[in-house]
């Protein structure tokens, strides 16, 4: 059931599949004898230098995968020279990430509930040293994640006889799950007037389908640091987010977990990059599995990518060390890809590094003979 929660998408999973297919169809240009043995991968995102352009995306309930959860992910990220974006629905509280890491990480907000709740949460986030805020705007309601629901992972987990039978073979997972009790969402927990802690997202009407641009405008006025809007697929929405004061956007379809049939993020990226130009930093998630995928996204206009499922796979396999391995693999693949392409600096990547077919489709001038 945990695997279905992590790996599945919405409804027929067409968007989930298209996220990967878009990368597979993209071809890179290769220049030989370029003389670059160690390409430069460093970038700066939201004013923070990163050793390579990959961040860990916000993922909810990460301790279901491995009890070390977001704390292990944050430690692996900072050791690799990058950052975790902590989910509002994380298994670890913002204060635990602050106290358990050496660097300042970033936070993702679901703008649900009333403004008093959001304001209190933003105060917690700021006090915990989270300096960049990501606001997710593509979840006015949950997508139809049927593959997860069939395995008992709907709105609330349901243990069926089949699930219990399968779980009997996962005794180490059960042992750690029961020992460490990482089953809550502490960032979305409120203390009621009666002194009892309750998960706010479970309250009726907490998830808001009526979210509007005025809510984003209020958050911009309330948050003093860099603000990224996550869940953008339309160029007009990207431009409007920047008009309201956002410093960046994340081209995202929630990993194919929300609107099935929505555009793949790599398909949506070029038009957004063309519309907003250099007005903001553009990040992308959805379908990124290799270092070459990161290179392709940057060629099409992204400044960096976020990964979700890949680091969860590493976390499941080996805790913090598994996340470290995933980041090392991606960085190694990215450097190798750029060396083989003949590109010496990530800052040089643009559409000119894509094979002619992609550039003709984009109605760009193609060098004679290529």
Strand order of the largest sheet: 3-12-11-10-9-6-5-4
Q: Architecture in CATH? A: Alpha-Beta Barrel
Mean pLDDT, to the nearest integer, reads 88
* End-to-end Cα distance: 49 Å
Share in β-strands? 5-15%
**Residues in helix, %:** 40-55%
Shape call = globular
Order of helices and strands: HHEEEHEHEHEHHHEEHEHEHEHEHH
Give descriptors for this structure.
370 residues; alpha/beta; TIM Barrel; eight-stranded parallel sheet; two-stranded antiparallel sheet; 12 strands
Tell me what the structure shows:
- By secondary structure, this protein is an alpha/beta fold.
- The chain has a single domain (2-361), classed as Alpha-Beta Barrel (TIM Barrel).
- Helices cover 41% and strands 12% of the residues.
- It contains 14 helices and twelve strands.
- It has helices at 2-7, 14-25, 69-79, 94-100, 115-127, 146-150, 161-167, 171-180, 213-222, 235-243, 265-276, 291-299, 309-341, 356-361, and strands spanning 43-45, 48-50, 54-56, 85-87, 106-109, 133-136, 189-191, 197-199, 227-232, 248-251, 281-284, 304-307.
- The strands form three sheets. Strands 3-12-11-10-9-6-5-4 form an eight-stranded parallel beta sheet.
- The longest helix is centred in the C-terminal third of the chain and has 33 residues, at 309-341.
- The termini are far apart.
Question: Summary?
Answer:
The chain is α/β, with parallel strands linked by helices and 370 residues long.
Summarize the SSE layout with pairings.
Blueprint (H helix, E strand, L loop, with lengths): L1 H6 L6 H12 L17 E3 L2 E3 L3 E3 L12 H11 L5 E3 L6 H7 L5 E4 L5 H13 L5 E4 L9 H5 L10 H7 L3 H10 L8 E3 L5 E3 L13 H10 L4 E6 L2 H9 L4 E4 L13 H12 L4 E4 L6 H9 L4 E4 L1 H33 L14 H6 L9
Parallel strand pairs: 3-12, 4-5, 5-6, 6-9, 9-10, 10-11, 11-12
Antiparallel strand pairs: 1-2, 7-8
Helix pairs in contact: 3-13, 10-11, 12-13
